[in-house]
Amino acid sequence: MFFSRVVGNTQVASQNVFSYGKIGQQRPSLFLVLIVGLMFSAHPGFGQNLKGNLEDWILYEKGNAMFEHREFGQALQLYKEAISSAGIFPEAEIGIGDVFLEEGEFELARDQYEKAYTLRNAFRVAESRYELLYKLADLYQSKDMYSQTENALLRIEGDDKKFSGPDSSRLRTQIWKNFTTKGLDHILFLYQLDVPFAQLAHSRLGWFYYRSGLYEQAAQELLFAVIYDATEINASLHELDSDYRFSTLADMGSAIQDHKEVSNFAATGGFFKDLYYLAGASYAAGFPAHAMQIWKLISASKIAGKYSSLSARQLKSPWVERILGAGTSGY
Fold first, then answer.
1. Each residue of 263-284: pLDDT tens digit?
2. Arithmetic mean of pLDDT, 120-128
3. CA-CA 20 to 30 A from 136: which of 126, 157, 230, 317?
4. What are 218-254's pLDDT values in tens digits?
């Protein structure tokens, strides 16, 4: 499957990697339970070690099923039973938080999510910590609590070793230097980086910093978001056409439109939004030529949606969006 990313040992569509960034995400699939069940049957020794884990995971999945059917009382009870069986079960703690959120209990949901985060080392699927942090970011965002939203996203970004690791400073400096001196085409030709769990954090932080007046910081965040998505898009285009090689963003845009699945990913996955705000941040940071080049490409795209018309307007009369709090709304 194109645009698939590995989460733990489970492969899921990249547009739904725990539905990052949306409250009420899909939970880990019952498919996981079936796999464990098959291993349990085929290898009795393995099964003896994980029998308890399988039983509490099934309770958890039953809770998920009740949640999806909006039977929140039953879901809550099953999550509690799963925790009682397991002792420590952060996935089920998240489920309880989701029930509180659906019932309109913001503070209880927040406290439950924070409790789950303190248990993050016990997640059965390690990447669930990112699902949780995106939930927290969404929760705070819904209340216009921008500082707390930023902190949740920064916790995700902190695990991105390409951006925040001990050796990342030189890479970030070099990417920014190459972008400002040689442009985006050079960057996308030179760097192929793929850190799927962090892409949306970079995207959202970039938007937030742009709307906070931190334009160079915003551009650097958005640059990484664009690189991560472009890396995956280019890999899939090459898989579809072995002769494909990235040359320019314009040629990449034409190739995207020739393949429906790639086109859908680019159109709905935030790629054009990130490009648009990368241009906006670049313009405000003092690089208008870079901005104009990107806006020109977006305006010519048939799949960029509203960002095509917005880019066309920017080309005629560029503007910078207002700072958050000045009669604006979030994200």
1. 999 998 899 999 999 999 999 9
2. 92
3. 230
4. 999 999 999 999 999 999 999 999 999 999 999 999 9
Give the Cα separation of 279 and 26 in Å (integer).
Answer: 33
Kindly write down the DSSP assignment for every residue of 149-193, as one continuous string: HHHHHHHHHTT-HHHHSTTHHHHHHHHHHHHHHH-HHHHHHH---
From residue 112, give the alpha-carbon distance in Å to each of 139, 227, 234.
12, 34, 40
Residues of the chain with CATH 1.25.40.10: 4-148
Q: Which fold has domain 4-148?
A: 1.25.40
Sign for the CA dihedral angle at 238, 241, 244, 248 comes to negative
For CA atoms 153, 97, 330, 268, the dihedral sign is positive
This prediction's pTM: 0.82
Task: Please provide residue 7's backbone torsions phi and psi, each rounded to the nearest 5 degrees.
Answer: -115, 110
**What would the mean pLDDT of 128-140 be, rounded to a whole number?**
96
Residues 6+ apart with CB under 8 A from 264: none
- CA angle in degrees (0–180, nearest 5) for 305-298-141: 60
Q: Torsions phi, psi of 55, nearest 5? A: -65, -45
Residue 206 in tokens? 């970039």
